[in-house]
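Friendly challenge for the regulars: who can give me the structure tokens for this chain first? No prize, just bragging rights.
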Amino acid sequence: MASDNHASYTRIGFFVIVGTALILGTVVWLGGWGRNDNEMLAETYFPNDVSGLDVGSTVNLRGVRVGFVKRISFVGAEYEVTAPEDGRKIFVLMSLDKRLFRLHPDPRTEEPRQMLQRLVSMGLHATVSASGVTGLSRIELNFPKGKVSDDRPTWKSANIVIPSAPSILQSVADSATQILDQINRMDLLAAWTNAVSTIESANGTIGTVGTLLESNGGNVGEILDNLREASSSIRDFANEIKANPSALLRSNDPERLPETR
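First reply, four minutes later:
Bragging rights claimed.
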């Protein structure tokens, strides 16, 4: 009887140990400690916040899911940096499926890491994009159409680095902030004062011209008559020169010869 109880305890202990080992193994595997032969690590750094991005968020390449976010931290917690602004940048480690980077039918043509590095040299950037109205975000790997800053890390990275680019919403927000800053720096009161002063000066000038015309109305008419007479004289002189160009070479008409008198 005692031997039967001892055998039962032994079996129960065995199952408990095996179950515990399976649970620990599952936790370790789900925690990312398990080996994945198709995993290719890459990292990127964002100077601004990455609200909505979390571990497990999707990583897309031109809209196709190619991996997920494996870890989010700060650059200062991952590497030794000298500049404080570098330490405050957000570090994002991405787990990419290297099978999706064999973009040629012949797998011997180019290794996935070489392909990813070549895409980076062609302008591949990482952007945080919102996923609809859920509040969640994802990382989009794409080739920006506009010019973006290509800040290279000053520290030695452990994995392939994909430069980051601001999202469309971030670009709009930055532009709006710059416009507001410029408006705040403008001295609107001084500009308004100058405009009012200019208008007053123009009104004064117009009033002066009006007064001059009113006080010298007769003189103005006489000046206009003189201008008309001068214009008429010039027109007659021009017609005479046109009819007799030699008049420019002699002051008076030549005297007639005796034979023709």
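The chain has three domains: 1-34, 36-166, 203-248. Confidence is low (pLDDT under 50) at residues 170-177. Your move, everyone else.
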